[in-house]
Amino acid sequence: VLESLRLDSGAAGYAARYGEPAIYIGTISSAARLSFTAVRVLGLAESVFPGTLRGDPILPPVLRDRLPRHTIAHDDEFALMRLQALDQVIRGTRDRIAFSVSRSDSAGGEHEPAGVFLALLAALTRTPAPTLHALEHLGFAPARAAMQARRREAPLTASDWLARIAAGAHALPSGWQRAPITAPVEVRARAATMHGELGPAPLTVQLPGLAATRAISASSLRTFLTCAQRFLLEHVLGLSPRRLLDETHRIAGLAYGTLFHRVVDCFARVHGAAFGTRAHDLAHWLARGDELARAQLAAFVQHYPLLGASAYDAAERRLRRDVRTFLSDDWQGGILRRLAASERTFGEERGIEIVTRAGPLYVHGRIDRIDIEGERTLVRDLKTGRAQPRTHKRAAPDPALDLQLALYVIVTEQLAATWGLPANVVGAYTYVDALAERTRSFREDPAQLRAAGAHWLDVARTQLGEHRFARTGDGDACRSCPFAPVCGRPEHA
What we know:
Blueprint (H helix, E strand, L loop, with lengths): L27 H4 L4 E6 L19 H6 L8 H17 L1 E7 L16 H10 L6 H22 L4 H9 L51 H9 L1 H9 L16 H24 L5 H19 L8 H24 L5 E9 L5 E5 L2 E5 L1 E9 L2 E8 L15 H21 L5 E7 L7 E3 L4 H20 L9 H5 L14
Parallel strand pairs: 1-2, 7-8
Antiparallel strand pairs: 3-6, 4-5, 6-7, 8-9
């Protein structure tokens, strides 16, 4: 739109300097009472303009109608105000004004022109409003024929494809011929039916994980195994989701997780050894945790837009509660632990090589906590989100949940001698969720996690080496995916 409205600085009679008003983009209501040389009004579709008030769950229409007319706007008054605003825009235009409506929206829905076009037609031609027969003959019938022709030539929605096939067409959209993939371990067996296969030819972009100079992280591997197409868009092609503004009434989830890890890491570095040997009672350590939580939060808000004393107090209460929950659970476990490392990084300069059946896979990452319990090493990943204990359907290892922990256990086993740790390594997730069991542990069956992790890494290395980027078959995940508009699904065309 902006490119089509570009002004020619050399045009006759045009003289303006940088900063002077030239183009205005806004709503009809906001443009009322302003003066313009030329105007284009977009989106004059039925049910959109003049439209009605949105439903209010607190004040439904029945109660709204009971209020005095001067206290709140009603549907008829809302429509009238928008029509009056359009009238003011027309009166404020000096030379030229254009009105338009799109045939369909981004979701493929069809639109009809708003009734205001009839009034515009009558005003411009200075003729009475056309009869219903004239509208059908001169307007609606040609419009329907044009719409049906467009649907045949460029089907965008499932209903368009159904109509096209019913008319005798033989082509099918590629999405209808794709067998759904619901588990990453089935990728290789069903690769012949999957969209996203680039073939064995060398790529101009080096894929993460295939070279020591470009290692892959646990989160990227999880993305690849759950939806390799999103991995292609995000980590290979370099597309990124739209970044939302930070919440100001509370600390956003990812930012809060970073803050919590910072407090726990600081506690481990300052008090970890004494805490592990139970040098003082629990009340002493809870007080030390409160002090660190307050100090870290005060430093954190210097760079985060948390507004208001109430928001700050709520964040402090939550942080202190979560730190106390973590310390209390750690203390009441009754196991003496020796802190080995906190926030241990690996593969930063050169990726750690993991041997798989398909070849070497190079990884990097950061392990939240490594402790020594007797003759074994405990690797833990700390989570501030909803707990996912090993109960019922979630008892077995799941790549979406456990790939990160499995990778950390495998890397720790491989580097145990270098890091001075016992070779027997077990893993667990630790949560601070107050409403559920706060651990997802593989202490009792570490071989199950280790075998599942090795299999997941084999699958990932195979698919990366063969350049297969299959789209997930989980429709629920697609609905919440920020890459859905560019994924290529028919419903997002």
